[in-house]
Write a structure and sequence with these properties.
By secondary structure, the chain is of the alpha/beta class. The protein folds into three domains: 202 residues, TIM Barrel, CATH 3.20.20; 47 residues, Membrane-bound Lytic Murein Transglycosylase D, Chain A, CATH 3.10.350.10; 43 residues, Membrane-bound Lytic Murein Transglycosylase D, Chain A, CATH 3.10.350. The chain is 31% helix and 21% strand. The strands form three sheets. Strands 1-2-4-5-6-7-8-9 form an eight-stranded mixed barrel, surrounded by four helices. Strand 6, helix 6 and strand 7 form a beta-alpha-beta unit.
Length: 325
C-alpha cells in the first residue's frame, strides 16, 4: 500500500486545498502547534479546509519539553487546539535535534532515557484522551536517542530523504522537504503512507470521529446569481451579512447553515449577487492582502488595482472598501 501525502505548517501560508486534492494527495499532516500551548497560525484554516475538500488529515506538535511532565502539558495544549476538528489521521509528537538544542539552552541534557520518557509521556496522554498516537523523527535522532522497539507501542512517522523505501517498520515516510505541490507556494514536505490510518482509526473508534461533524458539502459553484466569500478568522455571519447588505437568515438558508453561530475560517459562503453592493465591494479586513482578496473573488491583483486606483498592491488598509467588479 502506498498513499500519497504531505505535511504543512504556517510557513506554507494560505494553501489552496482544492488544488492539492485535485493533484492527487490523499492525506495531510498539519502542524497544530509547538511547545507550551502555542498554536500554529494556519492550523484552524488547514484543518477546516481539509475537512471541506475531503482530505483525511492528522496533526503534529513540535516538542520543546524538558521533562515528561512538560510533554504531558504539551499534549494537553495540542488536545485543546485539535478538539473542534475532525482528524482522521494520527496525532503526532515531533521530536528532533532542535528539541535537544532548546533543552541544552535551558540547562537540560536530553539523554536517550529522558527522550524516550518524553515521547512516551506525550503519546500516552494522547492515547488516554481517545486519539491515535504517533511520533516523528529522523534517522540520526532515532539511532541516537530512541529505541527501535518503541514502534511496537506507537506508530512512527519517519523522515529520511531519498528515493526508495528501505522497508523499516514505519507507517509514514517523509521523503523530501523540497517538494512542489499545486496550490502551495514554495517547498513542501512530501510523504508516503503505508497504513490506511483513516480506516484503522475509524474502525477502532478513535479520534472522537463519532462526535465530530461530517465534512460539510462542497459549495455549489457560483452562478450569475451568487458571489462567494471565504470566511476569515473572527468573522460572524451577521457581520458578513451586514457587509454585503443582506441578512444572516438569508445567508444561513442559502448555505444550509443550521446554526448561524457556527461558521469556521476557510468555509466558503454564497452571497446573493443582488444584495446591496455584493457584486461590487469588499471591506478589507485586518491581515488581508490584495493577492488573497483577488484569489478569494476569482479576479486578479491587476484588476483590483485598476478598479480602485491602487498604485502599490502592498498598501491596503483594514476598513477600506474595494471595488471588486
Amino acid at each position: 500500500m502506498s498513499i500519497k501525502g504531505l505535511d504543512v505548517s504556517e510557513f506554507q501560508g494560505n494553501v489552496d486545498w482544492a488544488q492539492v486534492k485535485n493533484a492527487g494527495y490523499q492525506f495531510a499532516m498539519l502542524r497544530a502547534g509547538y511547545g507550551f500551548r502555542t498554536p500554529d497560525q494556519q492550523f484552524q484554516r488547514n484543518a477546516s479546509e481539509c475537512s471541506r475538500v475531503g482530505i483525511p488529515a492528522g496533526a503534529y506538535w513540535f516538542c520543546y519539553a524538558l521533562s515528561p511532565e512538560d510533554a504531558k502539558k504539551e499534549a494537553d495544549g495540542c488536545l485543546e487546539v485539535i478538539a473542534p476538528y475532525r482528524l482522521e489521521y494520527p496525532i503526532c509528537y515531533d521530536i528532533e535535534q532542535a528539541s535537544i538544542t532548546y533543552a541544552e539552552q535551558n540547562g537540560v541534557t536530553i539523554t536517550p532515557a529522558l527522550a524516550t520518557q518524553i515521547v512516551k509521556a506525550f503519546c500516552s496522554r494522547i492515547q488516554e484522551r481517545g486519539y491515535y498516537a504517533m511520533y516523528y523523527s529522523n534517522q540520526n535522532f532515532l539511532e541516537t536517542y530512541l529505541p527501535l522497539e518503541m514502534t511496537q507501542q506507537y506508530a512512527l512517522w519517519f523522515a529520511r530523504y531519498g528515493s526508495r523505501y528501505d522497508g523499516l517498520d514505519y507507517g509514514i515516510w517523509q521523503y523530501t522537504s523540497t517538494g512542489s505541490v499545486p496550490g502551495i507556494a514554495g517547498n513542501v514536505d512530501l510523504d508516503t503512507g503505508y497504513v490506511d490510518y483513516a480506516s484503522v482509526i475509524r474502525k477502532a473508534g478513535l479520534n472522537h470521529l463519532d462526535s465530530k461533524p461530517t465534512p460539510p458539502p462542497k459549495p455549489t459553484p457560483p452562478s450569475a446569481d451568487y458571489i462567494t466569500y471565504v470566511v476569515q478568522s473572527g468573522d460572524t455571519l451577521s457581520e458578513i451579512a451586514e457587509r454585503y447588505g443582506t441578512t444572516y437568515q438569508t445567508l444561513a438558508s442559502l448555505n444550509q447553515i443550521s446554526d448561524p453561530n457556527l461558521i469556521h475560517p476557510g468555509q466558503t459562503i454564497r452571497i446573493p449577487e443582488n444584495s446591496s453592493s455584493a457584486s461590487q465591494y469588499y471591506t478589507i479586513q485586518s491581515g488581508d492582502t490584495l493577492s488573497e482578496i483577488a484569489q478569494r473573488f476569482g479576479t486578479s491583483v491587476n484588476t483590483l488595482m485598476s478598479l480602485n486606483g491602487i498604485s502599490d498592491p502592498n498598501l491596503i488598509y483594514a476598513g477600506n472598501k474595494l471595488r471588486i467588479s
